[in-house]
Design a protein that fits this description.
- The protein is of the alpha+beta class and 114 residues long.
- The protein has six helices and three strands; from the N terminus they run αβαββαααα.
- The chain has a three-stranded mixed β-sheet with strand order 1-2-3.
- Helix 2 runs antiparallel to helix 4.
- The radius of gyration is 15 Å and the shape is globular.
- 15% of the residues are buried.
C-alpha cells in the first residue's frame, strides 16, 4: 500500500467534527485501508468513495459497506488484501481472489486469525 493512501486515511482520522466527505481513487488499496481503520474515525463522519471513470463512475458509501461486511470481516480485509494481491506482493499464481474471499466470508476462524 502506498504512502499517499495511508496519509489520506490519517488526515481523515484527525477530523473530530460532524462532516461528510468524498475520496476519489482508482484502486482498491484506499478502500481496504478505510475498512481496517473505520473504527478510528468519528462515528458521525459520513464517507463516500468516488469509484470508476466516465459513465461508470459512481459514489459508494464506505459507512454502508462497513456495516454490511461487519466489523470482524472489515478488520480482516487489509491482511487478506496483502496476502492475495497487494501492489508489492503478487497474487497467488493463477488462483485469483474469488475462492479465498469466499473462504474468508464463510469462516469465522479465518477472520479471527487475520
Amino acid at each position: 500500500m502506498k504512502k499517499p493512501d495511508t496519509r489520506i486515511i490519517y488526515h481523515i482520522c484527525q477530523i473530530s467534527v460532524d462532516a461528510q466527505g468524498v475520496v476519489r481513487c482508482s484502486d482498491s488499496d484506499i478502500l481496504i485501508i478505510f475498512f481496517g481503520n473505520l473504527d478510528h474515525l468519528n462515528a458521525s463522519l459520513k464517507l463516500w468513495i468516488q469509484w470508476g471513470v466516465g459513465n461508470h463512475e459512481r459514489l459508494i458509501s464506505i459507512n454502508d459497506l462497513y456495516q454490511d461486511l461487519g466489523i470482524s470481516l472489515s478488520k480482516a480485509l487489509p491482511c487478506f488484501h496483502a496476502i492475495t494481491e497487494c501492489d508489492y506482493t503478487p497474487a497467488f499464481f493463477r488462483k485469483g481472489k474469488l475462492r479465498p474471499s469466499k473462504l474468508l466470508e464463510k469462516s469465522v476462524e479465518y477472520v479471527k486469525r487475520l
